[in-house]
TrEMBL record:
<dbReference type="GO" id="GO:0005975">
    <property type="term" value="P:carbohydrate metabolic process"/>
</dbReference>
<keyword id="KW-0315">Glutamine amidotransferase</keyword>
<comment type="subunit">
    <text>Homodimer.</text>
</comment>
<keyword id="KW-0677">Repeat</keyword>
<feature type="domain" description="SIS">
    <location>
        <begin position="218"/>
        <end position="360"/>
    </location>
</feature>
<feature type="active site" description="For Fru-6P isomerization activity">
    <location>
        <position position="365"/>
    </location>
</feature>
<dbReference type="GO" id="GO:0005829">
    <property type="term" value="C:cytosol"/>
</dbReference>
<dbReference type="GO" id="GO:0006002">
    <property type="term" value="P:fructose 6-phosphate metabolic process"/>
</dbReference>
<protein>
    <recommendedName>
        <fullName>Glutamine--fructose-6-phosphate aminotransferase [isomerizing]</fullName>
        <ecNumber>2.6.1.16</ecNumber>
    </recommendedName>
</protein>
<keyword id="KW-0963">Cytoplasm</keyword>
<comment type="function">
    <text>Catalyzes the first step in hexosamine metabolism, converting fructose-6P into glucosamine-6P using glutamine as a nitrogen source.</text>
</comment>
<keyword id="KW-0808">Transferase</keyword>
<dbReference type="GO" id="GO:0006047">
    <property type="term" value="P:UDP-N-acetylglucosamine metabolic process"/>
</dbReference>
<feature type="domain" description="SIS">
    <location>
        <begin position="46"/>
        <end position="185"/>
    </location>
</feature>
<dbReference type="GO" id="GO:0004360">
    <property type="term" value="F:glutamine-fructose-6-phosphate transaminase (isomerizing) activity"/>
</dbReference>
<keyword id="KW-0032">Aminotransferase</keyword>
<dbReference type="GO" id="GO:0006487">
    <property type="term" value="P:protein N-linked glycosylation"/>
</dbReference>
Length: 370
């Protein structure tokens, strides 16, 4: 069993460490080094169809849903197409407004999630073209979808998804850029710039993994708490939703992820002395706004950890208790690095509490009932 885990104590830790490889594998052959453009020959979706897309709906469950939240920020910013996110179990029952110009993207690691499969069929019955982003080529979802974009994360064993999620992000970057190329919403230079930054991600994640001890120490510190909060704005808000889910799944510590600016509209009432608040601060356009929100929770006694880029560490330390610095990338790609710190946090919190990290109570890797 230890051999299967490649010397790691748990599958989850092994899979966290496999992310640089998963990134490389998912990008492999999809970036043309000469033209500096994305090539996705596997797609049946024609350029004509892409030009006609009026809206996109991203539908998934659990961690795949959270990846879709990042997908939305990526597609909207690169291709300027309106995107909605839906939980698959809700999608079918809300009579979604679908036209032949609607692209539905279903995201599923296993390709077998019953709710997601049902949503896919609902979308097709309404005339949508369905693109599946999945990690399993021969899965039910891959077979039924009109188009498939495969993530090459390799088999994921731990119930808590890590490398599948991050590979889904890479799939969204590639697809978002592809839409932008066809629709002309980004210049060649802009596309090349994003691709260059993407190619640095594996190394940057490796660099981050080298600093896991600091996250471990912090995880041990929060392990005795019953409740905690995550805050962030923009893409950071989407990432902390995944961080909060990860922590709940395997450490059983209750946490909530909040849009930093929304706290004051209710949840601030729950902030009391000593409560941990983890602020993800990578989106520089809203950095000052997030710092104001950090000050609001600090004033109520919260113990704040900020996860940010090195260059902001000194400034942020004036307002928070601790800072964890992560490697810098473009704002739209930040999730691919920052999420790793939150995965490690969940892992080490679960470990400190003595839980079965790879097989959390009540949860299954793949849920094939609706
Ligand atoms: C289960 C797993 C989650 C996963 C979700 C969707 O609930 O425990 O980790 O995110 O299913 O799975 P899928 O295979 O469709 O991505």
């Amino acid at each position: 069993v230890t051999a299967e885990k490649g010397g790691y104590e748990h599958f989850m830790l092994k899979e966290i460490h496999e992310q640089p490889k998963a990134y490389r594998d998912t990008m492999l052959g999809r970036i043309d080094n000469e033209t500096k453009r994305v090539v996705l020959p596997e797609l049946k979706l024609t350029e004509e169809q892409i030009k006609n897309i009026r809206n996109i709906q991203i539908v998934a469950c659990g961690t795949a849903y959270n990846a879709g939240l990042i997908g939305r920020t990526v597609i909207e910013s690169l291709a300027r197409i309106p995107v909605e996110n839906d939980v698959a179990s809700e999608y079918r029952y809300r009579s979604p407004i679908v036209t032949p110009e609607t692209l539905v993207i279903v995201v599923s690691q296993s390709g077998e999630t019953a709710d997601t499969l049902a949503a896919l069929r609902e979308a097709q019955a309404n005339g949508a073209h369905v693109l599946a982003i999945t990690n399993v080529v021969g899965s039910s979802i891959a077979r039924d979808a009109d188009d498939v974009l495969v993530t090459l994360a390799g088999p994921e064993i731990a119930v808590a998804s890590t490398k599948a999620y991050s590979s889904q992000l890479v799939a969204f970057y590639l697809f978002g850029l592809y839409l932008a190329q066809v629709r002309g919403t980004q210049t060649d230079e802009q596309v090349a710039q994003v691709l260059a930054a993407m190619e640095s991600l594996p190394e940057q994640v490796e660099e981050m993994l080298g600093k896991a001890d600091a996250i471990k120490a912090y995880a041990e510190q929060i392990a005795s708490h019953k409740h905690l909060f995550f805050i962030g704005r923009g893409q950071d808000y989407a990432v902390v939703q995944e961080g909060s889910l990860k922590l709940k799944e395997i450490s059983y510590i209750h946490s909530e992820a909040y849009a930093a600016g929304e706290l004051k509209h209710g949840t601030l009432a729950l902030i009391e002395d000593g409560i941990p608040v983890i602020a993800l601060v990578t989106q520089e356009s809203v950095l000052e706004k997030t710092v104001s929100n950090i000050k609001e929770v600090k004033a109520r006694g919260a113990d704040v950890l900020a996860i940010t880029y090195e260059e902001h560490a000194v400034e942020l330390l004036k307002s928070v208790d601790q800072v964890f610095a992560i490697p810098k990338t473009l704002p739209i790609l930040s999730a691919a690095i920052s999420v790793v710190s939150l995965q490690l946090l969940a892992y080490y919190a679960s470990l400190a509490l003595g839980h079965d990290v790879d097989k959390p109570r009540n949860l299954a890797k793949s849920v094939t009932v609706e």
